[in-house]
Design goal:
The protein is mainly α. The chain has 30 helices and 5 strands. Keywords: Magnesium, Metal-binding.
């Protein structure tokens, strides 16, 4: 392993410990206070009949958290958020005749900024705004506050409110748990005797403090009181827009850690998070909280994907819950879709198993919708304002999961991740401190730059090896050398796995050299070469071979390189494996003889790479290879990779013979089902093969899929960005 500065490793270690402490303290959600919800809590009158607030600390929070311009809300300015929060806080202060100077300053802000509502993007309109904001205006008017100097400013908003109230199926609202429970404070004429039956077991209405506060005002329900008391204590007088958000927080943390390339530092914490989520998984999916049964497609998609990829047994039928007439929606009963929930659906649809038709339908629907939004320049989301959502969508549409290699994904996501600057959208704008976090970004940058320096040093070593053995003479260009190394490093980037990575790259190059040489000679000459290799591998001290020229030199290059790989493995694991490596190559060479059409012959190169990687990782044993399950993995992986190679070779042959590019469908289309089967068997927890061994097969298959799927120009762009562009 190349030597890097100790100070860099110390910084990485320090950041890891800071983040680990945060992860180990994760509970029900670390999110920002909502002035809007806090105001509704502050409006609750003492349930014993006294003319005083039930939660005076909430009123105090409002007094202490006004912005200098007179507003309340998120530091990121959105007229929707600031006006909603400010009006709610003004109403709360005026109701209790508290701090006249502050509510008057709030009224001044409202007068100056109310017209800006017409300039806001509808996609960023918070949940229930068109119903709740007019309700607040009416409450203010009853207090003698004139919010609307010009009623025409909000004509459209009032029209939307009337339309939405007419559409609300009151019979459904009162008898079936729906997302309407999240915004009860804006809905008139409610039957509380019926609604109380839909109360969540934690005492809330859909985990919404404002909705629950309104319910407490109407019912004086003790469960509502208990829920709000706990929330107010937890947030020191304030209230978030929703609580708890335990499932959402855990899943999105894992997603961010994985995409940033730093999940390997937190394996035990991630395992604990996913075990927690799995306890609350249901046949219809999950929600953002363990306490809600109003499931959504965003959390269900993220949960399903994470759980499946980590080996948990989850059933794709959960997604039928969100499908209606060929369309998929975030919540049952909705009529539109958001970008991030469809991106989550698209991502999960790509980890489908055979016969999971609902996920295939989800994939087609989400892909079409995202591409349409992309083409119209409408990649804005109703749940988050983030740094580069356009880039996230573009990357995921261009690089399907089968072709998604970890180093490339991480390099792109480092530019897309908003960290502390991410703004989430609910009833208000809010922060998720454990999801959007500068500590993650700082560690990810340190780690990536550390890895990149090592990779660049390795690339220099690879080039030295290339020059030392004159591999150019065997038909290998410097471009092919770079792509061979990139294929390996993109799949296995971790510093501690350098032995595997370098063995992969060198093996790939030597395979190409042999293949190139075999194309130029007869089958009889190929056999002679193979016999020479076999003789040399058995009689390693006998250099008197009846071979000549390049053939002899190439045999010597392979043997010397295998010896070097064997030495590295022995250095790391203390096991002498030279003879095993030579056996791998003997088996591969006997399988590599071409037939008349040399562009269509599979050669089981994947099996050679898989065995080499397992040997480097101390996972290989002869007993293992005779097990039926292992034989199945080997056969299926060879089938996938051979077919991908055949397509590439066929296209290369077409271009060579016709002097033009061949226009055919992506070569990977024919291997979709095989990839689904491979993924299913790799992720199954039963069987006698270690998960890391099974993962090797998938890693190699994905690298072949990447090479087959991506155009050369795309690969070159990825090489430049991932291997040579520093993260700033």
């Amino acid at each position: 392993m190349p030597r890097l500065k100790v100070s860099e490793l110390n910084k990485i270690g320090e950041q890891v410990e800071v983040i680990r402490a945060k992860l180990q303290s994760v509970d029900d959600g670390e999110l920002s206070v909502s002035p809007y919800d806090t105001a509704w809590v502050a409006l609750v009158k003492d349930i014993n009949g006294n003319d005083a607030p039930q939660f005076p600390s909430s009123l105090e929070w409002i007094v202490n958290n006004q912005f200098p311009d007179g507003s309340w809300g998120h530091s990121f300015f959105s007229a929707y958020d600031r006006l909603r929060c400010t009006l709610a806080c003004v109403v709360a202060l005026k109701t209790w005749n508290c701090d006249q100077e502050k509510w008057e300053k709030g009224m001044s802000f409202l007068g100056q900024y109310l017209h800006k509502l017409n300039d806001e993007d509808l996609e960023h309109q918070p949940s229930g705004f068109e119903v709740a904001f007019p309700t607040l205006i009416e409450m203010a008017q009853k207090l003698g506050l004139e919010v609307l100097q010009d009623p025409t400013v909000l004509q459209d908003l009032y029209a939307k409110r009337e339309l939405k109230l007419k559409r609300i199926p009151m019979e459904v609202l009162h008898n079936v748990p729906t997302t309407l429970l999240y915004s009860l404070e804006g809905i008139p004429d409610l039957d509380w005797e019926k609604l109380v039956k839909l109360q969540h077991k934690n005492g809330s209405f859909l985990c919404s403090p404002s909705s629950t506060a309104y319910a407490l005002m109407q019912t004086k329900d003790k469960k509502c009181l208990k829920y709000l008391t706990e929330v107010v204590e937890r947030f020191k007088g304030g209230a978030p827009h929703c609580y708890p958000m335990d499932l959402f927080e855990r899943l999105w943390i894992v997603d961010r850690l994985e995409r940033l390339g730093i999940s390997r530092y937190f394996k035990s914490e991630i395992k604990e998070f996913l075990e927690y989520v799995y306890r609350f998984w249901t046949p219809n999916g999950i929600s953002w909280s363990r306490d809600t049964i109003e499931f959504d497609i965003d959390d269900t998609s993220m949960g399903f994907r994470m759980l499946r990829l980590h080996g948990y047994d989850v059933n794709a039928n959960a997604f039928q819950h969100f499908e209606r007439d060929g369309q998929f929606f975030c919540f049952v009963g909705q009529t539109s879709q958001g970008i991030t929930e469809m991106l989550s659906l698209y991502r999960v649809s790509q980890v489908l198993f055979p016969k999971e038709q609902i996920l295939q339908e989800a994939k087609e629907f989400a892909s079409k919708l995202l591409r349409e939004k992309q083409s119209l320049g409408q990649v804005l989301d109703r749940w988050i304002i983030t740094k580069d959502l356009v880039g996230e969508v573009e990357y995921n549409l261009c690089v399907p999961w089968y072709a998604n290699l970890s180093l490339i994904e991480t390099r792109y996501y480092l530019d897309q991740y908003g960290a502390d600057d991410d703004v989430w959208i609910g009833k208000v704008l809010y922060r998720m401190y454990n999801v959007s976090n500068n500590h993650y970004l700082e560690l990810a940058k340190l780690d990536y730059n550390h890895c990149q320096k090592m990779h660049q040093m390795e690339w220099v070593d690879i080039q030295d090896w290339y020059e030392e053995f004159n591999l150019r003479d065997f038909g290998i260009s410097n471009d092919e050398l770079l792509k061979a190394y990139f294929q390996a490093v993109s799949s296995i980037f971790e510093p501690e796995r350098a032995t595997e990575r370098l063995a992969w790259a060198r093996s790939t190059v030597l395979v190409k050299a042999v293949s190139f040489y075999f194309k130029a000679i007869s089958i009889e000459q190929q056999r002679t070469f193979i016999e020479a290799f076999h003789y040399s591998s058995v009689h390693s001290n006998d250099r008197k071979l009846d071979t000549n020229g390049i053939r002899n030199e190439l045999v010597e290059v392979i043997l010397k390189t295998l010896s070097d790989i064997g030495f590295k493995i022995q250095e790391v694991h203390g096991t002498k494996v030279d003879h095993i490596l030579k056996n791998f190559w003997n088996a591969w060479l006997w399988n590599s003889q071409t037939q008349e059409d040399k562009y269509l012959v599979p050669n089981n190169e994947a099996e050679l790479l898989v065995c080499t990687l397992q040997l480097c990782a101390d996972l290989y044993s002869l007993d293992l290879t005779s097990q039926p399950e292992y034989v199945y993995f080997t056969s299926l992986t060879n089938k996938i990779c051979n077919r991908l190679c055949q397509n590439q070779n066929f296209k290369a042959g077409w271009k060579e013979n016709n002097n033009e590019e061949m226009t055919i469908d992506k070569p990977v289309d024919s291997v979709q089902l095989d990839m689904q089967q491979l993924l299913q068997h790799v992720l199954r927890r039963d069987g006698g093969i270690h998960p890391e061994i099974k993962q090797t097969f998938l890693t190699v298959a994905k690298s072949y899929y990447y090479t087959a799927h991506c155009e050369p120009t795309t690969i070159n762009r990825h090489i430049s960005k991932a291997l040579f562009d520093a993260v700033l």
